[in-house]
């Protein structure tokens, strides 16, 4: 710009047109800012030959950004009044290896270029992006954060807020990069209008129109990253900070206003909804307060606001969305996270699709996660704006700081109820915890009873409100039947037991029982006739079972009375299925999915029906053509594999099989044919029900019993509902049909069926556990603590909910303790200790009494079990007892009987009492005592004992009032014992005393006089108490009891108790006992101690020491330290860095790498060795190879290291391998031959394993090879890297890595 122009701006006396002058000045100021903030480019350096020497790299490194910035403060008039120097957090301008900020520099690898693989997966040299913790565990537990509400929903993690609001710069400017002008808006054909950005917390912005030019230059040269805004009042700032952020679509002002009204007024919170729905999921006032971070939304009607949004939706649908889908769309348009718990086939996929569509509009990214690959294949195809992966991959991306996370707007978690999975459920929790604050969450799940509680947990760890949207009924209701048919005559024996309204039909069940009994009687009779004719144990017509098989009376054995049947198909199964299929075909109830809980039985069931043909010639032609097109992708002999030919023959007849043993490409063929209606009967395992949207008209359960890997059990309601939910095609079927086959002699029990079909689904429960991978990935990041992760696990959700209230209680208790008056007494509170004993104050005396009470209470059960002491505790022995529960305080009682129940022992005693009213009062107090919590019970008992010892002495007894004529009998624990009196009565009729006590409990005998014998005992009790007070009768001291014990381990504690007893009995040691106001001061001291203990308890509960998984964490950390993966001060060593690159069996593979077990082996040998870690096939027998073979050597190499790891882990009560990661050598030879080039058809001759299991083993092996290859870079071993590339190349071929049909057909 010329000097004249600048003079024109600064000299007001030059006459220029006002508008031109104003525009020129604004242009100058804008250009000034852009020019001064632009990076300096050294053209000379860029033209030189590239030299990557270390000195050159250092000398050419980017200049360090300033660690402080000058921020101008601008008044209401727009003038700069002062500059304030502010420190910049290092996270704002650090590299990806040290900074967790979204504003950090992008990752670049060692050769100064960004790797595409590292962009997506990240690198172990990166630290994660800030996971939205915002605060440390102590702050969270302290309750310092403010609960989410409409006014402060955006105050969390303010440093990152500028990256969290997608309505501002993040939608058109990646962090750290220059803004990009997008020519298209939400509708794709209009230019987005310029609008003023309103950040969540307004950073100061300089006024370009009124600011002094020199101030502007100074401001720009200071390197301040943000342009400050004008100074506002505190109330205005708070209002801006607490403003709710809304996703804004670029439209004209009129449309924008209408859309804003539509979105902001769309979904009322539950607390504002006064309608009363009689639904289990409805939120009550108490639950709303308890689960404050979950906003449950009623979805029983459509939303008018949705109609306003309809023209501008990110994705258009050719059908009207259901209310729950409308509510979900409105929530997502508002930028709010949500948990959708809907019935199977209700349409949850629409919600996921809309989240992806919003990312397409916003030019951001979405990640869709699923537990199984089939979900990903079906629901979406890979797009630039949507990545599809398992949760394990997303977890790795989060730990490794993937660059994709910067652009991530939505993460969709499908099948969230999979969090209950024992092996993989913990991954869901890790991912939810590690997600950065700017990422919004969509969780999709089947109906679960505690979805609000789970959403509240997610809301608390992410510090945002989670909307909970549920469906209350299926779109297609289900009808449940029992099928008892066996042959042509009984093929129509189908009995409805639950109708479409969910009502249990007793009549239908009784008819099924009657039909089954008749059929079974007929079978037994036929079987008996066969035996009489010499038929032996053959089955009669229809495959009758022997009468003892499973039990005719319906007792459980091998599936009897549960619809289980035999574990193998035969003539009976063929008859049942053929007749059922014919009947369902006649009723137009096909297609049908039959769930069978065994891969082998799925195959066998399909084969025994080979005479049935359900397809027309036209359908056969289509199937044949499609199958041929799919198989053409295979090479050579793979096209003629037995499983391929068998599946082709089955599909041509309308049958198919779907389970993990089927080749992946064949499973996809089956899924596509089933969707098109060419497969009429599908035999599948329960994995087919996991989220794959392939509904049928009818679902059949071959059995309601499954083996879960540990035992045989009946299905739970959640499993049954998940599979049964496949019945009923929306828009085609009015109802879905669910059939349970009754193949046993008796039908399942009615109670079991009702729980199964109408019971509540399983609750979402935490399966979180501490893994070595998690420990290493967190320990390598200085800014993160493992306690942060543990505290935010779902297992600790209860503690998170209570933390704020506990912190309030803690502060209140501390304040009340400080306000308590001191004990102003020279005797009880001596200020100067002249000797070590004589000046012990009241607090020391109190603590000594408490110590004595707890030691004695703990010792009595042990001492009483000694033979010599046990002889003292006979019937008629006088005892001194104290019990707050039974209103005793150093009272003398008479022992009637010793009671024992298992390992617990107690005393039945008799005590005197003044009147019936006092006896009744004691009973009332005992009842009230039983309702107290454990803490209150312990405190009351301690107080009772302490007051008794202080008042009557260590072994003293209270003297009762004279003239007592009544008694009571009660049970006391051994901890109630104070002392054993050296006196007992002989020939006490304990049975008569107990009987009289029981009789007097009856109202009509209540006022009867006490028998003479019992009156005599009462007088003797009172006499012994008086004698004890006068010293005429003594008790056994602890020294005397110690001399009677034979166990050596009791000597030391008894001697210590005896010493403490002697000290407490000495009146000179504790002068506070002689205070004239002792009772008053002791009461005040007890109150202070109570406050202190409650404060101590709350502090512990609010600390990381109270974590449920604290012990497991410490144990596993010790294992890592012992193995050298973690060094001093919890620093991750080189071994640990290598293990961070491994995502499966990290300890074992790391040890194999560092023990040089790979480089000296051939590619096939390495593949065979690693197959032991990825094999999931179990042949059911121990695999032992001949000693001289290479396989025996490889097996020894792996087991030797694994045994060493197990030995180290066992020292710390831990395991070296995770759950489900056992070593299996069943496919070692198969993988070896495959890596050597043997065709798939030939390797199938080496094993009984099914094709699909072999393919899965080899595919997982390839993932392990990638991990080891990355680890080789960490080690700096090019030979190992080259070796693993060779291994990958040797196994990545042919049918094992055939392309998916979803992306190629």
TrEMBL record:
One of its GO terms (molecular function) is RNA binding. Keywords: ATP-binding, Cytoplasm, Helicase, Hydrolase, Nucleotide-binding, RNA-binding. Residues 329-466 form the Helicase ATP-binding domain. Signal peptide: none annotated. It catalyses: ATP + H2O = ADP + phosphate + H(+). It comes from the Eukaryota. One of its GO terms (biological process) is nuclear-transcribed mRNA catabolic process, 3'-5' exonucleolytic nonsense-mediated decay. Residues 232-247 have a biased composition (Basic and acidic residues). PROSITE patterns: HELICASE_ATP_BIND_1 (PS51192), HELICASE_CTER (PS51194). GO terms for cellular component: Ski complex. Residues 534-543, 551-567 have a biased composition (Gly residues). Residues 607-779 form the Helicase C-terminal domain. Gene3D superfamilies: 1.10.3380.30, P-loop containing nucleotide triphosphate hydrolases (3.40.50.300). It is found in: Cytoplasm. Residues 177-205, 225-247, 519-572 are annotated as: Disordered. This is Helicase SKI2W.
């Amino acid at each position: 710009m010329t000097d004249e122009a600048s003079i024109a701006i600064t000299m007001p006396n030059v006459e220029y047109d006002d508008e031109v002058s104003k525009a020129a000045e604004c242009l100058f100021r804008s250009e000034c800012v852009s020019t001064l903030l632009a990076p300096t480019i050294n053209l000379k350096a860029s033209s030189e030959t590239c030299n990557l020497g270390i000195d050159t790299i250092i000398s050419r490194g980017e200049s360090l950004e300033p660690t402080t910035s000058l921020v101008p403060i601008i008044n209401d008039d727009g003038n700069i009044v002062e500059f304030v120097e502010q420190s910049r957090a290092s996270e704002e301008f650090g590299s990806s290896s040290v900074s967790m900020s979204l504003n950090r520099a992008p990752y670049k690898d060692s050769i100064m270029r960004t790797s595409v693989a590292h962009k997506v997966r990240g690198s172990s040299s990166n630290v994660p992006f800030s996971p939205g913790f915002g605060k440390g565990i102590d702050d969270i537990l302290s309750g310092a954060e403010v609960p989410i509400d409409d006014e402060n929903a955006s105050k969390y993690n303010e440093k990152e807020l500028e990256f969290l609001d997608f309505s501002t710069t993040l939608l058109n400017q990646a962090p750290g990069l220059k803004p990009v002008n997008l020519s298209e808006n939400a509708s794709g054909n209009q230019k987005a209008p310029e609008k003023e950005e309103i950040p969540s917390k307004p950073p100061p912005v300089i006024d370009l129109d009124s600011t002094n030019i020199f101030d502007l230059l100074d401001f720009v040269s200071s390197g301040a990253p943000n342009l400050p805004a004008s100074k506002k009042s505190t109330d205005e700032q708070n209002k801006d900070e607490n403003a709710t952020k809304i996703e804004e679509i670029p439209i004209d002002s009129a449309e924008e206003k209408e859309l804003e009204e539509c979105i902001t007024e769309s979904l009322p919170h539950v607390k504002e909804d006064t309608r009363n729905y009689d639904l289990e999921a409805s939120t009550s006032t108490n639950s709303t307060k308890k689960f404050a971070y979950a906003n449950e939304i009623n979805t029983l009607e459509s939303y008018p606001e949705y109609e306003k949004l309809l023209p501008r939706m990110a994705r258009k649908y050719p059908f009207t969305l259901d209310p729950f889908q409308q509510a979900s769309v409105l929530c997502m348009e508002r930028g709010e996270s949500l948990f959708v718990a809907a019935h199977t086939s209700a349409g949850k996929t629409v919600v996921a699709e809309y989240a992806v569509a919003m990312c397409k509009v916003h030019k951001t990214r979405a990640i869709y996660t699923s537990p199984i690959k089939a979900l990903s294949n079906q629901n979406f195809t890979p797009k630039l704006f949507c990545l599809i992966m398992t949760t394990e991959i997303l977890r790795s991306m989060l730990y490794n700081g993937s660059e994709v996370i910067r652009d991530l707007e939505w993460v969709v978690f499908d099948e969230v109820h999979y969090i209950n999975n024992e092996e993989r459920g913990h991954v869901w929790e890790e991912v939810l915890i590690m997600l950065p604050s700017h990422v919004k969450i969509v969780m999709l799940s089947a109906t679960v009873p505690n979805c609000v509680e789970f959403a509240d947990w997610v809301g608390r760890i992410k510090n945002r409100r989670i909307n909970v949207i549920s469906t209350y009924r299926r779109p297609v209701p289900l009808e449940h039947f029992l099928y008892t048919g066996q042959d042509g005559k009984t093929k129509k024996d189908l009995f409805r037991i639950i109708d479409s309204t969910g009502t249990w039909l007793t009549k239908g069940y009784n008819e099924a029982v009657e039909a089954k009994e008749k059929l079974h009687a007929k079978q037994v009779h036929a079987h008996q006739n066969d035996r009489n004719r010499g038929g032996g144990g053959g089955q009669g017509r229809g495959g009758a079972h022997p009468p003892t098989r499973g039990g005719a009376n319906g007792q459980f054995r091998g599936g009897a009375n549960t619809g289980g049947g035999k574990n193998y198909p035969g003539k009976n199964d063929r008859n049942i299925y053929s007749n059922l299929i014919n009947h369902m075909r006649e009723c137009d109830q096909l297609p049908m999915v039959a769930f069978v809980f065994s891969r082998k039985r799925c195959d066998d069931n399909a084969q025994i029906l080979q005479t049935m043909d359900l397809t027309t010639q036209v359908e056969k032609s289509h199937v044949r053509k499609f199958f041929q097109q799919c198989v053409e992708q295979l090479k050579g002999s793979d096209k003629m594999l037995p499983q391929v030919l068998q599946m082709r023959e089955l599909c041509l007849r309308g049958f198919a099989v779907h389970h993990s043993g089927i080749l992946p490409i064949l499973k996809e063929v089956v899924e596509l044919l089933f969707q098109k209606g060419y497969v009429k009967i599908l035999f599948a395992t329960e994995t087919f029900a996991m989220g794959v949207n392939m509904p049928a008209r009818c679902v059949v359960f071959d059995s309601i019993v499954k083996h879960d890997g540990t035992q045989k059990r009946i299905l739970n309601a959640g499993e049954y509902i998940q599979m049964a939910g496949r019945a009923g095609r929306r828009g085609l079927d009015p109802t879905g049909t669910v059939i349970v086959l009754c193949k046993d002699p008796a039908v399942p029990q009615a109670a079991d069926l009702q729980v199964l079909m109408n019971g509540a689904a399983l609750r979402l429960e935490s399966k979180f556990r501490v893994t070595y991978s998690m420990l290493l990935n967190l320990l390598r990041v200085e800014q993160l603590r493992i306690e942060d992760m543990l505290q935010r696990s779902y297992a600790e959700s209860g503690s998170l909910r209570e933390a704020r209230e506990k912190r309030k209680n803690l502060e209140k208790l501390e304040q009340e303790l400080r306000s308590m008056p001191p004990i102003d007494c020279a005797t009880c509170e001596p200020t100067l200790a002249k000797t070590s004993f004589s000046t012990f104050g009241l607090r020391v005396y109190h603590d000594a009494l408490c110590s004595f009470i707890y030691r004695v209470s703990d010792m009595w059960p042990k001492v009483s079990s000694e033979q010599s002491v046990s002889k003292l505790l006979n019937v008629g022995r006088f005892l001194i007892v104290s019990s707050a529960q039974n209103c005793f305080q150093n009272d003398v009682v008479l022992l009637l009987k010793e009671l024992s129940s298992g390992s617990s022992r107690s005393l039945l005693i008799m005590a005197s009492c003044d009147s019936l009213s006092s006896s009744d009062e004691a009973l009332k107090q005992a009842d009230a005592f039983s309702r107290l919590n454990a803490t209150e019970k312990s405190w009351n008992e301690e107080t009772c004992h302490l007051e008794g010892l202080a008042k009557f002495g260590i072994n003293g007894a209270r003297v009762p009032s004279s003239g007592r004529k009544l008694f009571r009998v009660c049970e006391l624990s051994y901890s109630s014992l104070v002392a054993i009196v050296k006196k007992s009565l002989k020939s006490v009729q304990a049975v008569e005393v107990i009987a009289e006590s029981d009789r007097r409990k009856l109202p009509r005998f209540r006022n009867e006089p006490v028998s003479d014998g019992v009156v005599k005992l009462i007088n003797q009790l009172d006499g012994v108490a008086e004698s004890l007070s006068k010293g005429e009768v003594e008790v056994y001291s602890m020294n005397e009891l110690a001399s009677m014990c034979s166990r050596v381990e009791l000597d030391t504690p008894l001697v210590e108790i005896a010493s403490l007893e002697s000290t407490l009995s000495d009146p000179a040691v504790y002068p506070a006992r002689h205070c004239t106001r002792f009772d008053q001061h002791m009461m005040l001291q007890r109150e202070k101690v109570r406050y202190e203990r409650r404060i101590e308890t709350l502090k512990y509960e609010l600390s990381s020491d109270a974590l449920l998984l604290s012990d497991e964490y410490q144990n596993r950390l010790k294992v890592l330290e012992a193995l050298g993966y973690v060094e001093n001060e919890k620093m991750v060593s080189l071994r640990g860095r290598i293990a961070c690159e491994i995502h499966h069996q990290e300890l074992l593979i790391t040890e194999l790498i560092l023990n040089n077990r790979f480089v000296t082996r051939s590619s096939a040998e390495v593949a065979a060795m690693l197959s032991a870690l990825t094999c999931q096939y179990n042949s059911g027998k121990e695999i032992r190879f001949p000693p001289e073979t290479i396989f025996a050597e490889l097996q020894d190499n792996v087991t030797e290291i694994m045994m060493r790891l197990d030995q180290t882990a066992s020292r710390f009560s831990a395991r070296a391998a995770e759950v489900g990661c056992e070593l299996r050598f069943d496919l070692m030879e198969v993988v070896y031959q495959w890596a050597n080039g043997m065709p798939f058809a030939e390797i199938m001759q080496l094993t009984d394993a099914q094709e699909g299991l072999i393919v899965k083993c080899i595919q997982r092996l390839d993932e392990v090879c990638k991990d080891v290859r990355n680890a080789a870079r960490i080690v700096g071993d090019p030979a190992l890297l080259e070796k693993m590339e060779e291994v990958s190349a040797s196994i990545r071929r042919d049918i094992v890595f055939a392309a998916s049909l979803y992306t190629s057909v």
